[in-house]
Amino acid sequence: MLNEYDFSHAKKNPYAKALKKQITINIDSSTIDYFKAQSEAVGIPYQTLINLYLKDCVNNKRRLTMSWQETKTG
Fold it and tell me: Quick check: 52 and 60 in contact, CB under 8 A?
């Protein structure tokens, strides 16, 4: 770095906490297809839509509830 740079009046990035982190996640093809179709309908990228959905779950402190139904064979 050159000696002539002066960072004495520099400010921290106010958006640094909002930066995204890249991860690898396994998602069913049908789930991806669903979000891709939804994203086309609203005009935003599907990964952004998935992030917004998950962010809404966090902001509203949604709790996962699942119930399994028995399937009858025979």
Answer: no
d(CA 35, CA 25): 15
At residue 2, the pLDDT reads 63
User: Residue 61 — left, alpha, or beta (φ > 0 → left; ψ -120 to 50 → alpha)?
Assistant: left
What is the pLDDT at residue 72?
A: 78
Q: What total number of domains does the chain contain? A: 1
Whole-prediction pTM = 0.64
Length of the chain: 74
* CB-CB contact of 46 with 32 (8 Å): yes
Q: Which residues of the chain carry a pLDDT beneath 50? A: none
DSSP 8-state symbol, 73: -
| Token reading at 30 | 């049908």
